[in-house]
Design a protein that fits this description.
- There is one protein chain.
- With 117 residues, the chain is mainly α.
- The protein has 6 helices and no strands.
- The N and C termini lie far apart (58 Å).
Length: 117
């Protein structure tokens, strides 16, 4: 009986609140935001890591912004000599792989938290 009364009480309380009210939910998170708000080509390449960030200046001058890099094809990157060396052709593959994940919303570059001593 008590269980039924609490259900009715909760239903009545929720009916009194506006539909867009978040009274019972916390408006904060205990985890800090480790994702940058605006992502550029250098932040994107630093997020990938593995030595890909060495191409930041070259790609920034050629593409200008991240959206143009995201739609670039492998042949365009190869003509820019990104990962042209057979030892580092994985760099071109990494850029294309993470660009696809970023477009789909499955991955975002993280900001490195400040190191405390």
């Amino acid at each position: 009986m008590a269980w039924r009364q609490t259900q009715l009480l909760n239903r009545n309380l929720f009916s009194l609140l506006p539909s867009n009210s978040n009274v019972f939910f916390a408006g904060y998170s205990s985890k800090s935001n480790l994702y940058p708000l605006k992502v550029g080509i250098p932040e994107f390449l630093n997020g990938i890591g593995n030595g890909v960030e060495t191409y930041a200046e070259k790609l920034e001058s050629e593409f200008g912004d991240l959206q143009n890099l995201l739609v670039a094809r492998g042949l365009k990157l190869k003509k820019l000599n990104v990962g042209g060396d057979p030892k580092v052709c994985k760099h071109r593959k990494l850029i294309l792989k993470y660009a696809h994940k970023y477009r789909l919303g499955l991955w975002r570059p993280r900001i490195e938290p400040p190191k405390t001593k």
